[in-house]
Write a structure and sequence with these properties.
Oligomer: single chain
Shape: globular
Number of helices: 8
Radius of gyration: 20 Å
Number of strands: 10
Length: 268
């Protein structure tokens, strides 16, 4: 599932390409046809992201998109070709068209419904209006492992499996540490690190978490080969040597998701 940096990157892209001008909105697949007709021809006011949610704002409502596991966007320059596959929504402007396929959610909402979605989400490290103390209030009272809490979108939003594993490694924290055992100073460092890492992800479109001294060109190791891209310490490196200490990276499932860590650098 795309993590928060991807949605913020998409929001910036759509803002740059469509905001301030009328756009055509349709649903070649038909599942979003009735809602699309209500905003078709209206001015695209603004695009914004909140965690893993993308919002397209129009005068008469907001299109809410959650990509889920399979949602993807494709795009090009006019004229737009005949739709291929199950295109849930087509957005067409003066200089660009964008197709959305396979989202978990694509729906037209009123302001109260948009506010309700935001209200159930924790603070987003990529939003300047985020309040990390709200996340800390929940973490500091919880017996749940920090690894699970970081993935709970009601605690903080936008962090997924990659950022979760990597930020815990970078701060030497055992994934099983209960939230209420986390030092408040360390929480502030984790939040600051997430903000910095995810902002880099927005700029580059990939997740990189490895310090300069551990990069392939410095250590002489082969660059990472993975469809997710980016240089990381532990994510999807099960059994491979830790880039810092050489200990094999460990793996287990936690709440239905894959968890990766270094037993030596992140002792229980």
């Amino acid at each position: 599932m795309p993590e928060g940096h991807t949605l913020h990157r998409l929001a910036r892209l759509h803002q740059r390409r469509y905001a301030g001008e009328p756009v055509e909105v349709s649903s070649p697949q038909g599942k979003f046809a009735a809602e699309a007709s209500l905003v078709d021809g209206q001015v695209f006011v603004k695009a914004e992201a909140y965690g893993k949610h993308l919002f397209h704002h129009y005068p008469s409502g907001t299109v809410h998109i959650h990509l889920g596991l399979y949602g993807t966007f494709t795009e090009g320059k006019p004229p737009a070709p005949e739709p291929v596959g199950q295109v849930r929504m087509r957005l067409a402007g003066r200089t660009q068209w964008t197709d959305l396929r396979g989202p978990n959610r694509c729906e037209l909402l009123n302001p109260d419904q948009v506010d309700a979605i935001k209200a159930r989400l924790g603070p987003d490290p990529l939003r300047r209006d985020a309040k990390p103390e709200l996340a800390w209030e929940k973490i500091s009272r919880s017996r749940t492992s920090l690894a699970a809490l970081l993935m709970d979108q009601s605690v903080l939003c936008g962090v997924g499996n990659v950022y979760r594993a990597e930020v815990l490694f970078r701060h030497g924290i055992a994934p099983t540490l209960p939230g209420r055992s986390l030092d408040p100073v360390l929480w502030k460092e984790i939040w600051t690190d997430l903000v910095a890492l995810m902002r880099v992800g927005v700029r580059t479109g990939r997740i990189d978490t490895v310090a300069d001294e551990h990069l392939p060109e410095v250590t002489g190791r082969a660059p990472r080969q993975d469809r997710h891209g980016g240089e990381v310490y532990v994510y999807r490196r099960t059994g491979q040597p830790c880039l810092v200490c050489g200990t094999p990276v460990a793996h287990q499932e936690l709440a239905g998701r894959n968890l990766y860590w270094c037993p030596a650098c992140q002792p229980s």
